[in-house]
UniProtKB/TrEMBL annotation:
Its EC number is 2.7.13.3. One of its GO terms (molecular function) is phosphorelay sensor kinase activity. Keywords: ATP-binding, Kinase, Membrane, Nucleotide-binding, Phosphoprotein, Transferase, Transmembrane, Transmembrane helix, Two-component regulatory system. GO terms for cellular component: membrane. It is an enzyme of class 2 (transferase). It comes from Brunnivagina elsteri CCALA 953. InterPro entries: Sensor_HK_TwoCompSys, Sig_transdc_His_kin_sub3_dim/P. This is histidine kinase. PANTHER family: NITRATE/NITRITE SENSOR PROTEIN NARX-RELATED (PTHR24421), NITRATE_NITRITE SENSOR PROTEIN NARQ (PTHR24421:SF10). Residues 205-269 form the Signal transduction histidine kinase subgroup 3 dimerisation and phosphoacceptor domain. It catalyses: ATP + protein L-histidine = ADP + protein N-phospho-L-histidine. The chain crosses the membrane at residues 20-39, 45-64, 76-101, 107-127, 148-170. Pfam families: HisKA_3. The lineage of its organism: Bacteria, Bacillati, Cyanobacteriota, Cyanophyceae, Nostocales.
Length: 305
């Protein structure tokens, strides 16, 4: 039973429970009418009515969803059960049965087919009421206790159905609101996790760049120091060789400084944020000049843009 409920195509579970409530009300009305003889003028077969209600409720546990022929056969069988119970069995509160059929129809069919089935349900309900109208002249006046019982039954049914439906509707809305809140909290948590991951990746990247700077600069300084020591030793005996060592040491220092500048530029989040287009271009050109040592001349004319 639970598996069938889980497979039910109702978008809201309370609709299924409300359908069972309507069927339960019809069964109670049948029992109540038989006990107080409220519908003795109608041709009634209570056992047939209960059998039709049982089958009608069971087939509602699994709605057809794919094959169109199965949908038509399913809906036609529903009509047969209702007509059999109303015309032959004399079941009471027939509109509630057609209300359940219309609710199922809204989940089975779409578009024009849904409208056609709903219209047929209303027509069948009207025909049933007209069919029963011929028994009006045969109805004897009800006794006072029967009238009181009938009024009490109708009042309780109207109030009970309205109350239960309102409570279920409010519960469904509250559950949807709670689900939306949980979804919002989950989205905030995911956003926070994404920011943390981004920050962690940034920290790891900066640590890697810092290690690269340390390794490259340390290597350059070590080699440069060796060149300087060699230049000092050769300065008196071989000035030309010492000059070459000094030039190589200078080149190593320039390369190390260039790598440090590039690494620092990489560590910046976005150095061009807040700058105009001309300032951003000038900044990039100046950065290129410092890193490459190439003399550049910049002319900007943005009037035609």
């Amino acid at each position: 039973m639970i598996l069938l409920i889980e497979n039910r195509k109702y978008p809201l579970r309370f609709l299924l429970y409300f359908e069972w409530l309507l069927l339960g009300i019809i069964i109670c009305s049948e029992t109540f009418a038989s006990f107080f003889s409220l519908a003795s003028s109608l041709p009634r077969i209570p056992l047939l009515n209960l059998f039709c209600l049982l089958i009608f409720g069971i087939i509602g546990l699994k709605l057809p969803s794919q094959n169109k022929l199965n949908k038509v056969i399913y809906t036609g069988f529903e009509f047969v059960l209702i007509v059999l119970a109303s015309m032959v069995g004399g079941i009471l509160i027939v509109p509630l049965l057609y209300l359940v059929l219309i609710a199922r129809n809204c989940l089975i069919f779409e578009g024009i087919t849904r409208s056609i089935v709903s219209s047929l349900a209303m027509i069948f309900a009207l025909v049933t009421q007209l069919y029963r109208a011929k028994y009006i002249n045969m109805v004897q006046p009800l006794a006072m206790n029967q009238q009181l019982g009938l009024v009490l039954l109708v009042s309780v049914l109207i109030l009970g159905i309205s109350t239960v439906f309102m409570q279920m509707a409010v519960n469904a809305i509250a559950q949807e609101f709670e689900s939306r809140q949980k979804l919002a909290v989950a989205n905030d948590q995911l956003r926070e996790y994404a920011l943390r991951i981004e920050e962690l990746a940034t920290v790891q990247e900066r640590n890697r760049i810092a290690r690269d700077i340390h390794d490259s600069v340390g290597h350059a300084l070590t080699v440069s120091n060796l060149h300087l020591e060699a230049a000092l030793k050769l300065w008196q005996t071989d000035p030309e060789e010492a000059t070459e060592f000094l030039m190589e040491a200078k080149q190593l220092g320039s390369n190390a400084l260039k790598e440090v500048r590039q690494s620092i530029a990489t560590l910046r989040v976005d150095p061009l944020v807040g700058l105009s287009l001309s300032d951003a271009i000038a900044n990039l050109v100046e950065e290129f000049k410092r890193s490459s040592g190439i003399l550049t001349i910049l002319e900007i004319n943005l009037q035609s843009i």
